[in-house]
Amino acid sequence: xxxxxxxxxxxxxxxxxxxxxxxxxxxxxxxxxxxxxxxxxxxxxxxxxxxxxxxxxxxxxxxxxxxxxxxxxxxxxxxxxxxxxxxxxxxxxxxxxxxxxxxxxxxxxxxxxxxxxxxxxxxxxxxxxxxxxxxxxxxxxxxxxxxxxxxxxxxxxxxxxxxxxxxxxxxxxxxxxxxxxxxxxxxxxxxxxxxxxxxxxxxxxxxxxxxxxxxxxxxxxxxxxxxxxxxxxxxxxxxxxxxxxxxxxxxxxxxxxxxxxxxxxxxxxxxxxxxxxxxxxxxxxxxxxxxxxxxxxxxxxxxxxxxxxxxxxxxxxxxxxxxxxxxxxxxxxxxxxxxxxxxxxxxxxxxxxxxxxxxxxxxxxxxxxxxxxxxxxxxxxxxxxxxxxxxxxxxxxxxxxxxxxxxxxxxxx
Length: 413
Description:
Layout: H1 3-20, E1 31-44, E2 60-74, E3 77-89, E4 96-109, E5 113-120, E6 152-162, E7 165-175, E8 189-201, E9 204-214, E10 216-227, E11 232-242, E12 254-266, E13 269-278, H2 284-301, H3 308-323, E14 335-343, E15 350-359, E16 365-376, E17 379-389, E18 401-412
Antiparallel strand pairs: 1-2, 1-18, 2-3, 3-4, 4-5, 5-6, 6-7, 7-8, 8-9, 9-10, 10-11, 11-12, 12-13, 13-14, 14-15, 15-16, 16-17, 17-18
């Protein structure tokens, strides 16, 4: 057994021993502790984004995480921590790392005014797979929206003058890119502020978002959600901004993003369908120009006739090109469709479902089936898969990680 394998076994065994002693927890408990395990196993491949396995993946690579969550509530005060220790395997960075997803304290004066300080989820917007108005934190993983995102370090003020109106002010600093990328995308620190004003008018939620800051495009966002009788709701979320987030910058150009969709519930079944238009996404011509640039850079980087400095410069250009699809976090192309079905209820022992994202611009498909098991009120086990289908030159199939199997075990105390 290798050192890395022993580390993983010890990590898994220690958490399982603690989980075995789990006991039910009530929703009214002033203190709540969560322990869990997350296992992410990927199948890698050599693609245009991983020529000759330059990224250094084994055929099967992955992550193993021991998760800790803690929440303390005393009247109007609440403190929350969520984080994990992670062991990579099957990559060149086979090492332990520690990450805090959230670590904040908050206080509410009645139900009118609240303050939250620390690393936190912003989590606004009506879209299920995409939230174009929320650019203060890393974007969701649209291929599997069950991934828990890391929060942003900041301060938040909520003012709720009435049940129909609210205003949120946020100042935050965060990495522009999610942590679960298969490549080391350019690490950009965003420092930004935003205000979101919401009003409820005749079963319709209307919201306006304004945000701006350093290393972030200034945007105006609109968010609309309407309940059509309890079993059906519709939503639309859009943003308008000048200058692309994804290379090339295109500073003088105006861009538009919009998500429109709906949620239908029927008994224990829920169905979601939504369409996403990414105005700065690549056209077919731009997409193939980007791929040609990758080919040219890699050819130069691996050409022994070139001097070493020229090869290194070409390799750096290739690495930058590989990071482009992950730089904005919302997709490389222009049009996408998200559809999902879930079945279950808060009292169900078994839950299940399947979601899919279709790249309408190139025919790529990401299919994510999943199942959940909750033998006790405080224990949940989830198993999800990700399958990438469609043309070999589609955006999804070009990814160096071609499929995944994820397992998550959580126990509340």
